[in-house]
Fold this protein.
Amino acid sequence: MTADGKITTRTYSPVDFTSREDKLHLLRQRALADAVLIGHSTLQKDNVRLGLPKGELRDDRVARGQTPSPLRVIVSNEGRIDPSLKIFQSDIAPILIFSTTRMPRKFQKALRDRATLHLSDNESVDLAWMLQQLRREYKIRSVACEGGAALFRSLLELDLVDQLNLTIAPFLFGGHDAPTLTGVGKEFLPASVHCTLTDMRTVGDECFLTYRIKRRAS
Ligand SMILES: NC(=O)c1ccc[n+]([C@@H]2O[C@H](COP(=O)([O-])OP(=O)(O)OC[C@H]3O[C@@H](n4cnc5c(N)ncnc54)[C@H](OP(=O)(O)O)[C@@H]3O)[C@@H](O)[C@H]2O)c1
């Protein structure tokens, strides 16, 4: 995010405001996870493949007993996911889509050839249930969520996040309508989330922070 807390501009246009080092940092974090998770809007706007480059990162995974690349998981309530997105052109790792039976049949038909669909009868995806499914059916033990803000906020509200990797980039965007880490919503989170700073590193003008997120007392 920018130094004023923005993760993109008010038009949500794909913006490239972080360094090569930050992009490597993202790949390194992605490479640690068993699965990588993304919200439909981010997938649509940024058109990412969620893969890993050949070489050390993949080799290290295999040496750790993981698959060469993390499983790719897309979350969408409405399910109108464009089958021509780049993620579906790459077969680096299986793709799972967690959505609802609101997904129109036309999309179900087109996406079934490219991904495994998990469609629930609810209005929206139950994220806790999704994580349980990932663990039970796919033996996934660690998930790296790459945003966006709406999905991250939902995970926070459900107390399902245990670590935040945050890069502060040397820019200020301003703008009331540009989303922060938790989106543009005016509402407070149901409870403030308490973090512990576990690592801090600066490279050039960027600051790389790692926070452990404290679980709410139940
Ligand atoms: N700076 C960064 O590091 C960074 C990182 C990631 C993203 N971004 C930016 O963030 C923007 C997109 O973020 P966003 O907040 O608009 O969207 P998002 O979180 O990427 O996606 C939201 C969508 O995910 C689906 N979804 C399904 N279940 C959900 C749930 N329980 N909670 C929330 N979403 C759920 C819905 O898809 P349907 O509409 O299909 O139902 C929802 O509209 C993009 O502009 C992207 O570039 C920036």
About this structure: The chain has a mean pLDDT of 96. Helices lie at 20-32, 40-46, 56-63, 105-112, 127-138, 149-157. The chain has six helices and eight strands. The beta strands are 35-39, 71-75, 95-100, 116-120, 143-145, 163-168, 195-203, 206-213.
